[in-house]
Amino acid sequence: xxxxxxxxxxxxxxxxxxxxxxxxxxxxxxxxxxxxxxxxxxxxxxxxxxxxxxxxxxxxxxxxxxxxxxxxxxxxxxxxxxxxxxxxxxxxxxxxxxxxxxxxxxxxxxxxxxxxxxxxxxxxxxxxxxxxxxxxxxxxxxxxxxxxxxxxxxxxxxxxxxxxxxxxxxxxxxxxxxxxxxxxxxxxxxxxxxxxxxxxxxxxxxxxxxxxxxxxxxxxxxxxxxxxxxxxxxxxxxxxxxxxxxxxxxxxxxxxxxxxx
Length: 261
Hints:
With 261 residues, this protein is of the alpha/beta class. The chain has one domain: Ribonuclease Z/Hydroxyacylglutathione hydrolase-like (Metallo-beta-lactamase, Chain A). It has helices spanning 3-14, 68-76, 99-108, 118-121, 159-162, 213-221, and strands at residues 18-19, 25-26, 32-37, 40-44, 49-52, 84-88, 113-116, 129-131, 137-142, 147-153, 168-174, 177-181, 202-206, 226-230, 248-251, 258-260. Strands 8-7-6-5-4-3-16 form a seven-stranded mixed sheet. The two termini are 33 Å apart.
C-alpha cells in the first residue's frame, strides 16, 4: 500500500457515520435537511438532530403529514432519526403540531425537549419544555454538538385573522451553518428587522413567499443563499425559482427529500 492509498484509508475509517434520507450510511460530517411533510424538516449533523414542525397528523388533503413509515423510525430512533433530541414547533396549528404524537415521543424519550410558544408547550410538563416565546435571541447553546438555536416572534400570515397565533421563527446554527425556519410567517418586511439575523445560508419558507414581492425583499434583506419552499399542497404547481440573483431555490414537495450542506 503506497502512502496515498494509506492516507485515503485513514480518512475513510476515521470519519464517523451518518445517514442519508433513505437510511443508508454515509461517511461525512455534513449538515442535512430532510423533508417530512408540510413545513416539517429534520436538521442534523453527526451528533444531534433538530426537528421543526415535524410531528403533526392528517389535517386535510392539501397538507402533507409524516406517513407511518416516518413515524415508525421516529418512535424507534432509527436511521436519520437516531440522533433526534429536540422537537421545535413554530406554532400550534394542526398542520404543524400534534400534542398527541409529541407526548408519545416524550414518553419514549423523557430526556428530550419540546421547544415552542406557550400555545404549544402548555400541553407538557415543565421538565419537558423550553419556552421560545418573547425571547428574541438565543434559547439553546450545545457546544458539544455544535448547535445553537435562537427564537424570534414573527406574525402569522393573514394577521387580521390570526392575530392571537404565537408564531416563532427559529435560527438554527449547526456546524456553523445558519438555517432560518419562519413557520407560517407573514410577508411584512418590518417583521424581519431583528439585528441578529443576516447572512442566512438556508431559509425555509412557506409557498406563499415564492411569488410575493415583499417576501423577496425579506430574502434579499437576510442575504439568504438558498431558500427551501415548503407548505406545498399535493399536486400544486409552483414556479421553480424565486428570481433573486445569487439565491438558489429548492422546492420540498416529496417526503424524505433532502439536501446536504
